[in-house]
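#struct-help
A.M.: can someone run this one for me? Single chain, 77 residues.
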Amino acid sequence: MSQGFPFAKCAVIMATLDLAGQIAGLPMHRFFGGRLRDKIELTYALSIDAPAAMAESAKSYPFVKFFKLKVSGDEKD
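D.P.: on it. Structure tokens below:
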């Protein structure tokens, strides 16, 4: 399969799955087997600030389980 145009491919796949669900008479969550969990953890972002302030902000959310840390900025920084 071609590696180009991933967003266009995603749109076609989603439309195909939606059509399959409509034909089956099922909403997507049931089409794929029903609910598996009550909540889905997505993301938490820290705003750019002084390191100490960012650390305090991170500590205020102890329920967040960090598994990835991404640091970026201007090339000038």
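A.M.: thanks! The chain has a mean pLDDT of 84.
D.P.: also worth noting: The helical segments are 6-24, 28-31, 51-59.
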